[in-house]
Each structure stands twice: as C-alpha cells, then as structure tokens.
Design brief:
Layout lengths: L4 E3 L5 E3 L1 E3 L8 H13 L3 E4 L7 H11 L7 E6 L7 H12 L4 E6 L9 H13 L3 E7 L3 H10 L6 E5 L5 H13 L3 E5 L3 H4 L7 H11 L3 H11 L3 E4 L4 H9 L7 H13 L3 H28 L5
Parallel strand pairs: 3-10, 4-5, 5-6, 6-7, 7-8, 8-9, 9-10
Antiparallel strand pairs: 1-2
C-alpha cells in the first residue's frame, strides 16, 4: 500500500510521509532542495520550524512550484525563537511562508510551553479557532506532558512529533501507544538514524537480510517499518534518487516476521554488538596473557 493520508482527530487528514527542512540550512540551497522534493512527488512539504530559520525559503519554493495551496500540506512549529510568544510567532511564520494558514502548527518542545502547558495550549486552541492553523499539535512530548495537556484541553492535539526508530523503541513505544489511545497521531522523525549515525549495531543483520530479499535499500526497509507502526514519517535528503526511493518505500509490505526481527534487534540497543565485540577482545587478550604466563612458568621464567 503506497503512502496515503491519515485521518486526524479533528477531521482533517495528513499525508503519511513528509519532507522536513531541519537539516537544509537556508538560502538558495534550501529553496532548491524543497523544490526538488516537490518535483519528485512530496506533497507534505515544509515540515519546518522557527528554529530551522528556513521558513521563508520553504515558502518561496512552494510559491514557485505553482501548486495550489490546497494541494500541499504545510507544518511549522513554535520554537520560542528570539523569545517571541506563540501569538506573535504564528503571525511571523505565516508571513515567512507566504500563506494565510498552516495545516499543522506544533509546540516544538514541552519546555517551550510557558508559563505552563495548559496556558500555552489554550493559546494554540485560539490559533486554531482563528483559522491560522487547521490542526494543532505538539512535538517531543512524553506521556506525562500529554496527560497534563489533556487534563485541560478543549481541543486534543492532532499529532505529536517525536524521535522514533528501532533503537528507541522501548523508550518511545509508550508515547505512541498513549497517542493511539487518545486519537493523537504520532509523527516519526530521524527514523533512519540506525543506518546514518549508528551503523554497526544489531539492526545491521535483519535490515540487510530484508533489503536483499525485497531488493531495496535498507533505508526503504526502515521507512516501511515506521509506516507499519502507524506513524507519519518525516524525512529528508539532498539527493533526488533517495527521495524517490523514500516514496517507493510506501509500496513495501513487510511481513510480521520482518517487523518482529527489526523490533527485537532494535530493543538490544545500538551498542550491544560493539559491547560484545569488546568483551570478546578482552577475553582473547586475557586468554593469550594467561597462556603466555603458563608457558613462562613452565620454562622457569618469572615476572618478579
């Protein structure tokens, strides 16, 4: 099944894969990369934020694309940049993006919900009521913060964008499950970390086996895994062929055994393979040392 849309709890829908601008920088290179993502078929464009400092570039690329506003899904985040409040920040973001509303507006982190979560969330609810954002949500909220929010919310958050990949499965699964229980969609960022930043771990073997069987790159397997977990995937690349591959990952159907194998390897953690190799090296060194000592003793040598 290809990447489709997921229904949000407020009746709107969100495309299940997004092109993020976190690592793009700014200037013309950022405009070009957003334009490239649009050209290969991404329509959830500009998962951006105040703190990324490239809302203007994302907006310019969207306008230059010629796409109708209704045909693109735009997310941005309140990051507390320059100490500005939520009300001022949304107005600045709309101006930067060159639009009258965003499809999804997120509080970037619970620490930015000042003076407290209920007060900050009430401001988000007003933004939605005023039509400046179709949907509102949060980012990097744990279960405890979500519980505080829901206790006072008139409008539930539509989404919670969090770090999500197999090596953080144990830590993040309770957040995903809590969200599902309350109708909050989980967005997954940095799903490719196990191969981009933490290679050499226990995930290498199942990812390699699955990718060879399906004849696809390992990054597509990881994205298909995140999709199978019911998340909206937020990803990025400067390479056109990789972006095309990310979209192709929507057609992959992992088996329950594939997902279980990835889960099991992820739960071991990224350092488990390196730790075992280190222990093996230490053991071998100790055995060689003991053997050398035994030979020396037999020949009558002494270290003292």
């Amino acid at each position: 099944m290809p990447w489709s849309t997921i229904k949000l709890n407020d009746g709107h829908s969100i495309p299940s894969i997004a092109f993020g601008t976190w690592t793009l920088g700014n200037g013309q290179q950022s405009i070009d990369k957003v334009d490239q993502a649009i050209s290969v078929g991404f329509n959830h464009i500009a998962d951006t934020a105040q703190s990324y400092r490239n809302e203007t570039e994302a907006g310019q690329a969207l306008h230059e694309s010629g796409l109708d506003r209704k045909d693109v899904f735009i997310t941005t985040k309140y990051s507390g940049t320059n100490g500005l409040d939520i009300e001022t920040s949304i107005q600045n973001s709309l101006k930067n993006l060159g639009v009258e509303y965003v499809d999804l507006y997120l509080i970037h982190s619970p620490r930015l919900a000042t003076p407290d979560i209920p007060t900050a969330w009430a401001k988000m609810e007003k933004i939605k009521a005023d039509g400046l954002a179709k949907s509102i949500g949060v980012s990097n909220f744990g279960v405890a913060e979500l519980e505080i929010l829901l206790d006072s919310a008139k409008v539930k958050p539509a989404a919670n964008q969090i770090l999500f990949h197999p090596y953080v499965l144990a830590r993040q699964t309770p957040i995903v499950e809590f969200g599902a229980l309350h109708g909050i969609v989980t967005e997954a960022y940095s799903a490719l970390i196990p191969i981009t930043r933490q290679p050499g771990g226990p995930l290498d073997t199942p990812l390699k086996d699955i990718s060879e069987r399906l004849n696809v790159p390992t990054e597509q397997v990881l994205l298909a895994w995140a999709k199978a977990k019911g998340t909206v995937v937020v990803t990025s690349s400067s390479k056109k062929d990789r972006l095309e591959g990310y979209l192709n990952a929507g057609d992959l159907e992992l088996s329950s055994d594939d997902i279980a194998a990835i889960d099991a390897a992820g739960l071991l953690g990224p350092g488990s393979t390196r730790f075992r190799k280190m222990v093996k090296r230490i053991a071998v060194t100790a055995l060689l040392g003991a053997a050398g000592f035994a030979v020396g003793s037999y020949l009558g040598f002494s270290a003292f």
